[in-house]
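Long-time lurker. I teach an intro course on protein structure, and each term I like to show students one example going from raw sequence to a predicted 3D structure in token notation. This year I'd like something fresh instead of my usual example. Would anyone be willing to generate the tokens for the chain below so I can use it in lecture? Attribution to the forum is fine with me.
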Amino acid sequence: MGWFHLKNGPPPPDGALGRPRVAADEIDEELRLLDFKLGQLKRDYDQYFLGNRPREPVQLRGEINKAIHKLTSSAIKNTAARFKFSSICSRYQSHRRQWDETQRRIEAGTYERHRFRAQIHEDSGANGARSDGGSAGGTGEDLYRSYVDARLACGESVEGLSREKLERVISKQRAALREKFGDDSEFRFRVQIEGGKVRLKASRG
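-- Reply from a regular --
Happy to contribute to a lecture. Here you go:
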């Protein structure tokens, strides 16, 4: 599999800017818990906007805000852990914008619950076709965002990188794989960090 990368300056050393060092196993556990809580928070908001939950889940959202602030203030040494944290933060920011906009529409009296229910159904179907953010039929916004986050986490430049360029690279790779394994084969792509470098990995499915 081919991939492309541009070198940039190295990331700041551990402990830079006065950030405390944190044990790797502790970071991994905090990231696992943060990821779990974010998934739960999304489900809680979905239920709230559907009318199945009486109150907005502000307590869990506050816990996630505190956890993100704590991890942001820590010196995360492991590149893969930094990438995972960056990806979680990107997802959270995206969800927050959606939640806040929906809440604003509720307060303004312009919220339509049936449209939100249809959107939930549509999102569930799309997510089922994705592998780490990339759909079998295209790169997908999540895959592109994950790729950018991974490069930044590894200290690689993202200058000149665009969603269209990534799609062209993956289209060439997909065509080569189909020629090798058969025209009817489908492949999903995911972002991986190996040896401190970002790579795109394909799997059949």
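Some talking points for your students: The CA atoms of residues 21 and 75 lie 5 Å apart. The radius of gyration is 19 Å.
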